[in-house]
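Review session, final week

We close the course with one last complete record, chosen because it touches almost every idea we covered. It is NAD(P)H-dependent oxidoreductase, a protein from Terrabacter lapilli with 204 residues. Go through it on your own first, then we will talk.
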Amino acid sequence: MPLTALALNCTLSPSPAESSTQLLAQQVLDALAEHGVSGSMVRVVDHDVRPGVELDMGDGDAWPSIRRQVIDSDILVLATPTWVGQHSSVCQRVLERLDAELSEKDDEGRLQTYGKVAVAVVVGNEDGAHHISAILFQSLNDVGFTIPAGGVTYWNGEAMHGTDYKDLDSTPDTVASTTRTLAANAAHLAGLLAGSPYPPSEEG
């Protein structure tokens, strides 16, 4: 079956502002498309995602519709800028809302996120991509996603410098190569998991 990907852009800038996070996340979707994976993107800050750790926090909460897109996709691309050396507050809210997946299981005791691949995208003007990706990897794995080899692509500008990723004249070769590897590995792993699901849970 055809594979699909959903990118959650966790920039702090609402549309239509330009976003370096959006640019690199789109490059990941474009690279995935070369492997037959169709993709879409949600800029989370444009939606009223309420704080909490439940599937639906009520009162106009936008998370349930975004979550439906996550569950319907084979690959989650979680993309965040770097602020104060950390992932964005929007990204943290996404992680907190994904915590509810721990109580959502299929008839064989598996989380609904089992069999889904997750990758990370990190941009920023200071170092911190390894720190942030480590947090994202552990958090996403905790709630059931599988991380492929080379599961992050990132760009960090020079310290104390004001250049953004979107301001570069071209994509650095190392970033482009890393993005291509991420896409190839994510598509490969998602295809394997789609054809051969994880075994039933012993707790099921």
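Two points worth writing down before the exam:
Helices lie at 20-33, 63-72, 89-98, 129-142, 173-195.
The chain is about 35% helix and 20% strand.
Good luck, everyone.
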